[in-house]
């Protein structure tokens, strides 16, 4: 079976595909196509995409490629839910890469990233206690990241911030990554200025994340 035939056969359950402005990480403020896959193994208290847990329709890799290539952007992010729960996500990554796209992956720290290809820019979202899911973090993922990848930790309070600092120190993250760790306050719950003061007073290499897309667009806006 040739590659084209395989792409016709391989399916993923897709929640939505949309074109927007990247709001987080190293590619923030760049145009980006988002492929949101259905399903998640976590139930974070602050999740803003709960609709992705169950909603979605099967699509072949060929169908996904046709939609993605209809947009001008060269950046494409595979997200969820938790996209690594679907085994066909890996051939999708290769197909997107072969079509000339820069492939980004947004994944939690709960699924091992050892099968993610080296050409993918990974944004690893490790969970703090405020999420209610921090016990499901797989810390071995930190060692599997490339130095150019991003680590993001969403925080709801100072306890979460201290958790993030402890994680960075314990796992020697600053020696693993060239980018500052992204500390992202829960949108609408934690004051950015307050979190900014914590960052300013920390000796660690940190960056304040702001979910910029929620400032550009209506925060509850969904693809139609």
From TrEMBL:
It catalyses: 6-carboxy-5,6,7,8-tetrahydropterin + H(+) = 7-carboxy-7-carbaguanine + NH4(+). One of its GO terms (molecular function) is 4 iron, 4 sulfur cluster binding. The keyword 4Fe-4S applies. Binds 1 S-adenosyl-L-methionine per subunit. Its cofactor is S-adenosyl-L-methionine; [4Fe-4S] cluster; Mg(2+). [4Fe-4S] cluster binds at residues 40, 44, 47. It holds the Pfam family Radical_SAM. Residues 27-219 form the Radical SAM core domain. Mg(2+) binds at residue 49. Pathway: Purine metabolism; 7-cyano-7-deazaguanine biosynthesis. Its EC number is 4.3.99.3. Signal peptide: none annotated. S-adenosyl-L-methionine binds at residues 46-48, 81. Keywords: 4Fe-4S, Iron, Iron-sulfur, Lyase, Magnesium, Metal-binding, Plasmid, Queuosine biosynthesis, S-adenosyl-L-methionine. Substrate binds at residues 21-23, 36, 79. GO terms for biological process: tRNA queuosine(34) biosynthetic process. InterPro entries: 7-CO-7-deazaguanine_synth-like (IPR024924), Aldolase_TIM (IPR013785), rSAM (IPR007197), rSAM_sf (IPR058240). SUPFAM superfamilies: Radical SAM enzymes (SSF102114). It is an enzyme of class 4 (lyase). Belongs to the radical SAM superfamily. 7-carboxy-7-deazaguanine synthase family. Homodimer. Catalyzes the complex heterocyclic radical-mediated conversion of 6-carboxy-5,6,7,8-tetrahydropterin (CPH4) to 7-carboxy-7-deazaguanine (CDG), a step common to the biosynthetic pathways of all 7-deazapurine-containing compounds. This is 7-carboxy-7-deazaguanine synthase. It comes from Turneriella parva (strain ATCC BAA-1111 / DSM 21527 / NCTC 11395 / H) (Leptospira parva). The gene is queE.
């Amino acid at each position: 079976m040739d590659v084209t035939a395989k792409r016709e056969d391989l399916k993923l359950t897709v929640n939505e595909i949309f074109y927007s402005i990247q709001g987080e990480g190293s590619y923030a403020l760049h145009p980006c196509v988002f492929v949101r896959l259905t399903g998640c193994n976590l139930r974070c208290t602050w999740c803003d995409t709960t609709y992705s847990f169950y909603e979605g329709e099967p699509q072949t890799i060929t169908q996904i490629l046709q939609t993605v290539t209809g947009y001008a952007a060269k950046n494409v992010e595979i997200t969820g839910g938790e996209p690594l729960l679907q085994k066909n996500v890996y051939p999708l990554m290769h197909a997107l890469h072969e079509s000339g796209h820069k492939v980004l992956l947004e994944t939690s720290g709960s699924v091992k990233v050892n099968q993610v290809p080296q050409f993918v820019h990974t944004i690893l979202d490790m969970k703090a206690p405020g999420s209610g899911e921090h016990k499901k973090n797989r810390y071995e993922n930190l060692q599997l990241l490339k130095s150019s990848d991003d680590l993001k930790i969403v925080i709801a309070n100072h306890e979460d911030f201290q958790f993030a600092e402890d994680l960075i120190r314990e796992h020697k993250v600053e020696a693993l990554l060239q980018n500052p760790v992204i500390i992202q306050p829960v949108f609408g719950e934690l004051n950015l200025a307050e979190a900014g003061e914590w960052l300013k007073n920390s000796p660690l290499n940190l960056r304040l994340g702001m979910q910029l897309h929620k400032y550009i667009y209506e925060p509850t806006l969904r693809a139609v």
